[in-house]
Amino acid sequence: xxxxxxxxxxxxxxxxxxxxxxxxxxxxxxxxxxxxxxxxxxxxxxxxxxxxxxxxxxxxxxxxxxxxxxxxxxxxxxxxxxxxxxxxxxxxxxxxxxxxxxxxxxxxxxxxxxxxxxxxxxxxxxxxxxxxxxxxxxxxxxxxxxxxxxxxxxxxxxxxxxxxxxxxxxxxxxxxxxxxxxxxxxxxxxxxxxxxxxxxxxxxxxxxxxxxxxxxxxxxxxxxxxxxxxxxxxxxxxxxxxxxxxxxxxxxxxxxxxxxxxxxxxxxxxxxxxxxxxxxxxxxxxxxxxxxxxxxxxxxxxxxxxxxxxxxxxxxxxxxxxxxxxxxx
Length: 329
Ligand SMILES: NC(=O)c1ccc[n+]([C@@H]2O[C@H](COP(=O)([O-])OP(=O)(O)OC[C@H]3O[C@@H](n4cnc5c(N)ncnc54)[C@H](OP(=O)(O)O)[C@@H]3O)[C@@H](O)[C@H]2O)c1
Known about the structure:
Layout lengths: L13 E3 L6 E3 L1 E4 L10 H13 L4 E3 L10 H12 L9 E6 L14 H15 L4 E6 L8 H13 L3 E7 L3 H13 L4 E7 L6 H4 L2 H7 L3 E5 L20 H4 L11 H16 L4 H10 L6 E4 L4 H8 L9 H11 L1
Parallel strand pairs: 3-4, 3-10, 4-5, 5-6, 6-7, 7-8, 8-9, 9-10
Antiparallel strand pairs: 1-2
């Protein structure tokens, strides 16, 4: 039987999620890849144990994570049942709905019909009575914002989620949604968006500033650009890398010579700072206090151990920041 490391809370920094009462680990673990029915179950267990033993209390899922869709929730449900579940009150488990999940007009986007049914399915797959955070996974241009936010409100009132979050929303839509959720007294506390040295979208679309102004947290996904912002691809494309194991989301065509030259220059800077590139890329996101947590993925426990070291040095000189910008932008 699994017993968690007694020193786990000494190893992690916890940040307040916006102006809410919830603290999140500076590094959280996402189960988008490597937790599907095609992956090795023992490795999933090792990764979850490594994460929790090192203070990662937050595990992020979505209805469609797999492959096949839903299988990451099934596997995580098994891990909960077999060992982590004994620590349920020490875990923050999130899931989402918003992308294509089942056939027909009710298995996608942002209708009340879809969101409520999807969360019920997720809870069943994970064997949970509630999730800690339920997200609307992406903006829906065709469903009235009031309907989607109303569904999130109903979900919280029914006790199936403690908090709600919005994912892939931009600054102006976030502001509108916040006003509706405030009227409905919904504990909306967090935004989940892509952010990394190579992808500055949330700086450009106003989300980063707006979230802070509204007192909301931000958790950043793909903080390592799916592995590009590490030493993973510096000497070619390894057979066990995401490009090879899941070419659908990270394609070989994205690993260009130009990109690798930039990664090599960033890698050099990281070495001068006494960090791996993965550590520096995560530290760069955490440096100015806007971001509550970096939401990493991993294919091996050792990557998790590397990534949590990011918090040991999140201070950058102005010259280092300028250098990172000039290399990457
Ligand atoms: N809301 C949304 O729309 C959305 C979208 C995408 C993701 N997410 C969430 O964000 C989570 C993380 O996304 P992501 O997996 O793209 O994050 P990521 O951290 O940018 O990439 C993870 C990948 O980078 C590689 N890696 C990680 N640490 C490493 C290290 N220390 N050294 C070398 N390589 C390392 C591994 O790739 P290899 O497999 O090559 O080893 C790993 O699978 C997801 O699991 C999900 O929960 C949300």
